[in-house]
# Entry
Amino acid sequence: FLVLTVQLTSSFLNSLEGLPGYDPVLFEAVHLQAAPITSIRINPAKKSDLSFSLTPVPWAQMGSYVSPRPSFTFDPNFHAGAYYVQEASSMLLEQAFLQSGLSNQPIRALDLCAAPGGKATHLHSLLAPGSLLVANEVIRSRTGLLRDNMIKWGADNVIVTQNDPAHFEKLPGYFDWITLDAPCSGSGLFRKDHDAIASWTTGQVSHCALRQQRILQAAWKVLKPGGVLFYATCSYSAAENEEIAEWFINEYGAIFMPIQLDSSWGVIETTNGYRCWPHHVLGEGFFFTCFQKPNTAAPIERAFRTEKNKQIKKSADFSSLVEWIDLDGMDVTEMGGQLMAFPKAMQADWQIIQSALHPVYAGVRIGEWMRDKLIPDHALALSTHLSSVVEYLPLDYTQAIAYLQRKEIKAATSTKGWMVAAYQGLPLGWLNVLTGRINNYYPKGLRILKEHL
# Structure
């Protein structure tokens, strides 16, 4: 990261005076330095040997700082979903979730503003078996990235939706946990987004606060009595943080849920929440708080309307899929002409979500039939349900990068037909081995466009 060349405005600095943990000298000094080391969070479902040095993030079991910053674009393990590049402060979600009392039971969880997927993949790794995660993004252009990151993570119990938060009011009292990483003015990321400094205004903060209130109102309606809502921003402004928390508690009777944090981490306890300052924490600016919905709130009884999903009826079609996917505990359905597998235990939830919202992806996309032959989907290769009978074609580093650039692959193999391109044992995607050539089926939209580091 480059050293900051844009001066922090006096109006911005004045807005921070008196906030818990703010030190004007240290704050300005840290913004004149390079940004802190990069952090990643390892995927517990995809074990790998990473080639770079890792230092643990103390509040996240799978979180690590990486120094120096490697080229993730040219790391096959990154494309295989072995880890997610995520800002360390935001990993404090883990402490809130583990202390919520929901980590040891199957729950329904919602990430309401989930793109690009950092907190959604993190929460997925923390959920108890049998849990359902709905990852939502209202902005269409960002939904594709969210979907791709959930696919890369290998998740099977996730539904990706594209809905305005207000649409979730069709599901009153449905979710046990809600993550709300609210759209904000973004001042906490000034060290990484220098262009945002010049555009910061008090008017922008006020606009964001109104939007945050609207989203919180929608979220509260779909939270179960006794459920927990995690609210966060990457803003320093009290209007988007403490003032929002105070408004929410007074307006809706939300109960602030304290989180126990190690004092050595440098997180500052504030009114009804917690602040991360880059001069105290090895991370960027971040605010978070947890609210519990009173158990005294009357549960909303509702008969959710469902529509019968189209099931595969031909037993021959179903039986042939065992050559591709481990269907233990899974049902196979169709979605947009594509075969998909979704946990049997969550079929009722899947029907309800389809009826109430606009899902764009769910479970594991298997592929589609063409002339009675299955064309396997990229998601199947990266899932944790890939059949053990599918053969791998091991690639070295040079071959793996060429594969990810969607170039021609030359490798010796006696197998013909579909194979998984793999690097250090982790699948990258599909290859189709024909006589005299190997066709590269890595998705065009995901390919590495750069030629060299």
